[in-house]
């Protein structure tokens, strides 16, 4: 006969969960408001009216944005930067981290010391800008990818994760005749799936949300990323200032609904992808931080 021990609910638990629920609701409120505005029909839209549910629903603002060349160009730019950037980030981060785990690597301690040093001290904006300019990467997507192929924090976490992998399995592969590349692709990467999922999400979100570097290096409006486009729509207070001159019927939707719809569209892909990677994401981060 088994007895299930039930934890006694204390006053602290009640207060704690209540505060967390309030904070969660406050965090969710702005998103619900933006979503509500974006779905409000132009005939019932009232500027700055506080409504969490539209009085009359409409997808006019979304159709208006999706029919414009500006949004299509920005979406293509962002998808390219995110896909290529995340893939190269994974390739450079995991290969370098694996190299740093090899004790026979010449000057391994010095190289790792430089990685830690760059974690604390960075060159800054001006040297980075001059470097990109001298490399001829201005107004190029590669200006947003090459300078950030990897970073110190990612290298340290991935290296710690790889150090936690069973040494016996790696040594057995080498005894069986696997070279370094074979060991990396056949042993290290399959065992690193949680870390791979976590850092794919890290890098993809970082590239998807890139704003400052895109604003700094991309001078052609046709190459703008989604975040730069949304910024222009929100701050310029008019969608027409960036070339969105398509119309729905005989009139365009209110500019506020268009801006809200653009914000929703810019964050929707990450919200859709994250739940599928959440389990691996949490596992990968915890393994790399605890066992490292």
UniProtKB/TrEMBL annotation:
Keywords noted in UniProt: Cell membrane, Membrane, Transmembrane, Transmembrane helix, Transport
Keyword Transmembrane helix carried by entry: yes
GO cellular component: plasma membrane
Coiled-coil stretches noted in the UniProt entry, renumbered to this chain: none
One of the GO biological process terms: transmembrane transport
Pfam family of the protein (one): BPD_transp_1
Subcellular localization: Cell membrane
ABC transmembrane type-1 domain residues: 75-276
Signal peptide location: none
Recorded topology in the membrane: Multi-pass membrane protein
Sequence intervals crossing the membrane: 14-36, 79-98, 110-129, 141-162
Family: Belongs to the binding-protein-dependent transport system permease family.
Protein name as it appears in the record: Carbohydrate ABC transporter permease
Lineage per the UniProt record: Bacteria, Bacillati, Bacillota, Bacilli, Bacillales
